[in-house]
Sequence to fold (207 residues):
Amino acid sequence: MSEYRLLIKHFVWIIVLSTFMCGCEKELKGYEKIVGTATINGKDYKESTWWAWNFKGYPSSMRLYENYKIFHFIARLSPEKVDEPSYSIYFYVTVEENQFKTNHPYKIDFYSDELVVESLDWWDILPYLSKNRNNVLIEDVDGIAYAFSNTSDLSTPFKGELVLESIDNQSKVCHGYYSLISPENGSVKLVINGKFEIVTAIINHEY
Fold:
């Protein structure tokens, strides 16, 4: 009986060590970590990064700019099928207080007029949206979102909502989701539903 118990004990240890070694090998070699998923018109998309023992970094961050009372981040989505276009979605959300709100649906809507900016880059959008919030956003709207694809130079605006489900107090990693739809009069109507994992930061800087 003692030999049987000893055999079982060794067998269990082998299983445990094998699992541990597989995990270590994965960390050492590195692997693709999925930090975002989405469906665009029913087709599967993802955002990923390379994750290893010596590098664990997110491709972008969600930054709250205190001087502008706006947080901004980019979701970079690649198609699961190679023949589909890729998209970068830019979010700009205004906040009353300089803090992120979890489980609060931020309302996204089309711009009420054209954005009079030199470019749609964040360093032009941030000060303009902060100064002209009441002109750009209609009542009860929190922010704007638009996308560029690798097949067009034209931006596509959206309406919908963005929700930050949780933010870890130590790592500052946020999990959330969004649902967006483009205008009916657009050349191609886009319906996007996505989830994301991203690190947050609070910035005190002007541009």
Observations:
- The longest helix spans residues 2-29.
- The two ends are 75 Å apart (CA to CA).
- The chain has a mean pLDDT of 86.
